[in-house]
Amino acid sequence: MSLFVENPIIVALDYPNADQALAFVDQLEPGRCQLKVGKELFTRSGPAIIEALTKRGFNVFLDLKFHDIPNTTAQAVLAAADSGAWMVNVHAAGGRPMMEESLKRLRGAGHETLLIAVTVLTSMNEQQLRETGINATPAEQVMHLASLTEQAGLDGVVCSAQEAAMLRGALPRSFQLITPGIRPSFAAQGDQQRIVTPKQALIDGSDYLVIGRPITQAKDPMEALTLIEAEIASIKP
Ligand code: C5P
Q1: What pTM does this model have?
Q2: Distance 190 CA to ligand 1 centre (A)
Q3: What positions carry a catalytic annotation?
Q4: What's the pLDDT tens digit per position in 201-231?
Q5: For 77, which of 62, 102, 105, 152 could close a Cys bridge (C-beta 3.0–4.6 Å)?
Q6: In this predicted model, what pLDDT tens digit does every residue of 73-96 receive, in sequence order?
Q7: Residue located nearest, by CA, to atom 13 of ligand 1
Q8: Is the CB of 181 under 6 A from ligand 1?
């Protein structure tokens, strides 16, 4: 069984607690989207939130961006998979041994959980990168770390939708691109600076679209989801 799914939408559950997250999720139909649990919700509600969501039939992307020595990261990745996560991520900057060990331990335990990496945080600009000792442009560093991730055997990377075309042109088609910063044509921009429509992101080679507020803040979340599905229907295989 492959854990790759047909539906490309991952809804970002940016809620401060499990009650609010579940009240929202109960308005959604499983099978129409995946769900992303991030650091705030997970830190407040713990692994029980993953169990509650998977019990409702949802695939859960646990977005904790692990970054530590190989043994510690691998054990954290394993713990995420044991708790039922469908997708989990690490920082590519943690290095090849860290990524390889995480993948090895995951697959060794029989988990098919998708393991992906974060390259350069989109909040970082060239000057901030230089301050951390990296003398490359963000785009160069993203390319570099995405290649390293692919060589380490991971399933893909999280990247800005604006980087998707560059990465898609350089990496195998099976390497998954997960892109936030998506705004459907009906939605407000919010605090996202560089936004791409769902359709454009898929045309540029994204495999999964991380979408938060356009769905979570909608009066009718299923209606918002349906509108997005209609926007991308023409380019789905
Ligand atoms: O509400 P919105 O669609 O902007 O939410 C996007 C989600 O993707 C949030 O959970 C945000 O933290 C995450 N994200 C992002 N940009 C990145 C990486 C992650 O917006 N570069």
Answers
A1: 0.95
A2: 11
A3: 65
A4: 999 999 999 999 999 999 999 999 999 999 9
A5: 102
A6: 999 999 999 999 999 999 999 999
A7: 180
A8: yes
